[in-house]
RNA sequence: GGGCCCGUAGCUCAGCGGCCAGAGCAGUGGACUUUUAAUCCAUCGGUCCUCGGUUCGAAUCCGAGCGGGCCCA
């Protein structure tokens, strides 16, 4: 782009001229106050002009030059402060010609209030501490192009307060979740990302290769099987917040890498976990918003316990009139799906079809947090069966705003049952179901040594941030979402 | 998977068959010592996403592709 090229050339020339005066990229800078603190000490000193002197640093976001004086806006991590430069006090005033929007300055001076009322630094000395070579987005409209916001997030963060707010909220939410589990005596652990078998969930893994070992490895798709090994090892409460990878499409709902929380608590069951999840969401909401009741646009959301509770069978029956127990075969269920215009792939299993019915007719209706208990065994190869019902497992999922937030089981710890179900999944994979679980012999050997009864939980952290912040797209809560190649350049 | 919308200057956008593609901001030059979307004058800046087609003539119409967004089952 010739025009952009010209803008960069002009700035490169200014950089050269600055280099002749002083290094415009110094390693060390002075700073006595942030912008916010500078405003604060001025007020604390009684709002008297020139009573306090500060040195502040930050990025120039606006310039209003009037011949022999100039006002610049300086922004740092705390906020914004105005600077006043005067030719009669600054021998190097003319060097302001070398300053562009986007450059970083270090400035010293006394603080005063202008006649229009703005607290401002009367600059007595200044220097460039970073010369920028490319122009920033426009000051008034900012950066609105969604694609550019995702591909060049740094520009989005410079231009859009909301993006900064979401990023900060994410940090608060993740740290609140961590604090919640630490407070309850859970041990935070880290388990392998590179694995021999990518198990613990139904998803296609990414494959990679270890050269020295000359062996293919997979990026993990869940945290489950290693955390359970730690239960075998004797830790009673463990959790991990980690990145997992699923080799699926990219959209506003899916990113190939996302952040998962999983926790396991020995001697607890899924009802204990449900109670804990209610507390957890309430805690996180209070940390982020100061309250469990908040709204996103029209939607009033309450994360105050207790949440609504229903069952898988009951919810599907209520919203569709379908009693899935009457359709025990794949063919019968496929016919039901067809009659409701739910598209079903040719090779789809009974469980997959059932899941399609749930996601189509039930999940989108669950706006307030709602627990769905007791899933079909066929959907849940790692959960313990109900005592009185072979076909149902002790599992719940929590939904809110129409999507899944949490997934929990009374964990299957009968090694014989676990082996049978893993081998059944394995057989499905051999038949071509690429999302079926693979048998992990090492894991099976581990639980054959005895894994205590336990309640396990998984929460998609990105979804949780969406829920708390009311963001529609996953790409708004992931700083650097995966994007397709643009194909040019 | 289906439908709709968008892609024009660094940024935000207009132009929707007809002189040479425009505006604001940013940039450059000038005026201006309390401005704050500063103001005023002048000026530079384009692969109109890509490829193909229709036409005397295409940013504009048609087709395909690429990228992005929204909606639906």
Largest sheet: 9 strands, mixed
Uncertain spans, ≥5 residues at pLDDT below 50? none
Count up the helices.
14
- Indicate the structural class: alpha+beta
The gross shape turns out to be elongated
Mean pLDDT: 92
Please report the total strand number as a whole number: 19
Indicate the proportion of strand residues. Answer: 25-35%
Q: Taking Cα atoms only, what radius of gyration do you get, to the nearest Å?
A: 29 Å
Write the layout of secondary structure elements.
Layout: H1 2-21, H2 35-44, E1 53-66, E2 69-76, E3 79-86, E4 104-113, E5 119-130, H3 146-151, H4 153-159, H5 161-183, E6 187-188, E7 194-195, E8 207-210, E9 215-219, H6 224-232, E10 237-245, E11 257-266, H7 270-289, E12 293-296, E13 299-302, E14 308-311, H8 312-320, H9 330-339, H10 350-362, E15 370-376, E16 385-386, E17 389-400, E18 403-410, H11 415-430, H12 441-448, E19 454-460, H13 461-469, H14 474-477
Parallel strand pairs: 3-5, 6-10, 14-15
Antiparallel strand pairs: 1-2, 1-4, 2-3, 4-5, 7-9, 8-9, 10-11, 11-19, 12-13, 15-17, 16-17, 17-18, 18-19
Helix pairs in contact: 4-5, 5-7, 5-13, 8-10, 9-10, 11-12
This protein binds one RNA strand of 73 nucleotides through residues 1-4, 6-8, 10-11, 62, 64-71, 73, 82, 84, 86-88, 100-101, 114-116, 118, 120, 134-148, 150, 155, 159, 252, 340-343, 360, 473, 483-488.
Structure in a nutshell:
It contains 14 helices and 19 strands. The mean pLDDT is 92.
Tell me what you see in this structure.
With 489 residues, the protein is of the alpha+beta class. 34% of the residues lie in helices and 27% in strands. The protein has helices at residues 2-21, 35-44, 146-151, 153-159, 161-183, 224-232, 270-289, 312-320, 330-339, 350-362, 415-430, 441-448, 461-469, 474-477; strands at residues 53-66, 69-76, 79-86, 104-113, 119-130, 187-188, 194-195, 207-210, 215-219, 237-245, 257-266, 293-296, 299-302, 308-311, 370-376, 385-386, 389-400, 403-410, 454-460. The strands form 4 sheets. Strands 6, 10, 11, 14, 15, 16, 17, 18 and 19 form a 9-stranded mixed β-sheet that branches. Strands 1-2-3-5-4 form a 5-stranded mixed barrel. A 3-stranded antiparallel β-sheet has the order 7-9-8, with no helix packed on it. A hairpin with a 2-residue loop joins β16 and β17 (389-400). α8 (312-320) crosses α10 (350-362), α9 runs parallel beside α10 and α11 (415-430) packs antiparallel against α12. The protein binds one RNA strand of 73 nucleotides through residues 1-4, 6-8, 10-11, 62, 64-71, 73, 82, 84, 86-88, 100-101, 114-116, 118, 120, 134-148, 150, 155, 159, 252, 340-343, 360, 473, 483-488.
């Amino acid at each position: 782009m010739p025009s952009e090229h010209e803008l960069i050339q002009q700035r490169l020339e200014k950089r050269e001229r600055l280099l002749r005066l002083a290094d415009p990229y110094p390693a060390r800078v002075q700073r006595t106050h942030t912008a916010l603190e500078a405003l604060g000490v001025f007020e604390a000193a009684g709002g008297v002009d020139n009573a306090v002197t500060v040195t502040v640093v930050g990025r120039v976001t606006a310039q209003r030059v009037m011949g022999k004086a100039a006002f610049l806006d300086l922004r740092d991590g705390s906020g914004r402060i105005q600077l006043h430069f005067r030719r009669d006090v600054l021998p190097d005033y003319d060097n302001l010609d070398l300053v562009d929007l986007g450059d970083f300055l270090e400035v010293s001076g006394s603080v005063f209030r202008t006649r229009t009322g703005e607290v401002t630094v009367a600059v007595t000395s200044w220097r460039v501490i970073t010369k920028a070579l490319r122009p920033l987005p426009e000051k008034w409209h900012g950066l609105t192009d969604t694609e550019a916001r995702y591909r060049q997030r740094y520009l989005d963060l410079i231009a859009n307060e909301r993006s900064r707010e979401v990023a900060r909220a994410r940090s608060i939410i993740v740290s609140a979740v961590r604090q919640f589990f630490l407070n309850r005596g859970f041990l935070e652990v880290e388990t392998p990302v590179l694995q021999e078998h990518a198990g613990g969930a139904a998803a296609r893994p990414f494959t990679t290769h270890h050269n020295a070992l000359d062996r293919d490895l997979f990026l993990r798709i869940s945290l489950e099987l290693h955390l359970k090994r730690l239960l075998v090892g004797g830790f009673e409460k463990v959790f991990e917040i980690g990145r997992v990878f699923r080799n699926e499409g990219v959209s506003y709902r899916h990113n190939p890498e996302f952040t998962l929380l999983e926790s396991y608590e020995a001697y607890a069951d899924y009802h204990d976990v449900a109670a804990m999840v209610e507390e957890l969401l309430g805690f996180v909401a209070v940390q982020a918003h100061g309250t469990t009741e908040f709204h996103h646009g029209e939607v009033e959301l309450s994360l105050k316990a207790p949440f609504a509770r229903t069952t898988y069978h009951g919810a599907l029956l209520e919203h569709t009139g379908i009693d899935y127990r009457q359709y025990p075969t794949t063919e019968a269920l496929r016919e039901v799906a067809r009659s409701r215009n739910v598209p079903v792939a040719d090779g789809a299993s009974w469980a997959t079809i059932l899941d399609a019915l749930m996601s189509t007719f039930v999940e989108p209706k669950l706006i307030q947090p709602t627990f769905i208990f007791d899933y079909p065994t066929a959907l849940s190869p790692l959960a313990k069966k109900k005592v009185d019902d072979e076909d149902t497992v002790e599992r719940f999922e929590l939904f809110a705003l129409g999507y899944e937030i949490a997934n929990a089981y009374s964990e299957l710890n009968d090694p014989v049952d676990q082996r049978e179900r893993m081998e059944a999944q394995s057989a499905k994979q051999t038949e071509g179901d690429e999302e079926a679980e693979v048998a992990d012999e090492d894991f099976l050997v581990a639980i054959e040594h005895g894994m205590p009864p336990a309640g396990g939980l998984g929460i998609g952290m990105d979804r949780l941030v969406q829920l708390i912040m009311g963001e529609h797209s996953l790409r708004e809560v992931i700083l650097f979402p995966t994007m397709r190649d643009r194909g040019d350049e």
